[in-house]
Write a structure and sequence with these properties.
It is built from five helices and eight strands. It is of the alpha+beta class. It starts with a strand and ends with a helix. The mean pLDDT is about 85.
Length: about 180
Amino acid sequence: MPAFVLPIQDLDESGRDWNFPITDDWLACALTGTELSPAGRAGRLEVHAQRNGQDILLQGQIDAHLQAPCARCLEDMPLDVDLPLTALFVPAQLRPRGPEAAEVEVRLDETARDYYGGTEIILDSMVREHLLLEVPMKPLCAEDCEGIAVPTHVQPPNDVFGASAPDPRFAPLLKLKEELTKKEE
């Protein structure tokens, strides 16, 4: 069942305001299939919608609290999302149809355009999309996060990689360099 529904029959040119809570239950359902999860604090969706002829202009603010695994250490980290929401809804009967619809060029000013039909606008999928787009591709709990600690019983001995290697992944190259240096001497 949708959580963010705008009944449009009462809208006029001056518009109307709505405030919706973004609950943990809604977030858990909306974020299914992603690595994100609710952070345990309620968020909010504030929306102002107004009619302009048959079109409906929607402006609002999304405030949500999520958790995401750090890309290096995999610990859950808080991710607060606070972003504006703007969209223009056009009647569904104006949507391009048929073979010419597949060849329509999308202009930049049309990216925030959507279509509505009936007596209400459901914003759930739009809010989900905005939340997912706001999350960094590789979220980090801190810029200097060192990642997952390698247990000492798994670490190779210092003589394999050398104690002064700046990064253990370069050790094979350093070893090759040493061998080539010995051959040149």
